[in-house]
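Q: What structure does this chain adopt?
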Amino acid sequence: MDENDARENPTAQDAMPRAKFEFFGSYSHSIDAKGRIIIPNAYRGMLGDSFTLGPTRDFNGIALYPDEVFDKILDELNAMNQRKPLVQSYTMQFYKLSYRSMQPDIQGRLLLPPKLRQRMLADAKDLEISGGYNHVRIVDMEKADAADTEFMDRKDEILEEMGNLEPDGNQ
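A:
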């Protein structure tokens, strides 16, 4: 077997394991008068019967986390030194804005809790609901558009920097 065959037919040990949750794509939706969003059909099955709703880890939007993913985040947060005031502050905000056992209604609508909605989306009505690999990300459409523009303006610089990075092997 030559090098080309090895690339085309990787053995089981050479193959990278696929993640259980892979959310991709981007959808435009609006919040209705009651504070509900429609979860795109493409994401519903992977989210499962219930999931966790909370802030994104950078607090720039709302995330829908499959419970298994959220449990891993909790393990990571709880492994940090809980005596550090910054850790206490971050985790308290993260916990306080997270809601377990969330379920959409039969039409795929999800009520966003008012406190989370106000903190993460302010008065935004138009949203981008997009895949964030292991979670679904919900952000104000204006902020999403601004981030897209910034990326395109800096893409050459970003690609150059990424070319200099080494993979860390952690997922």
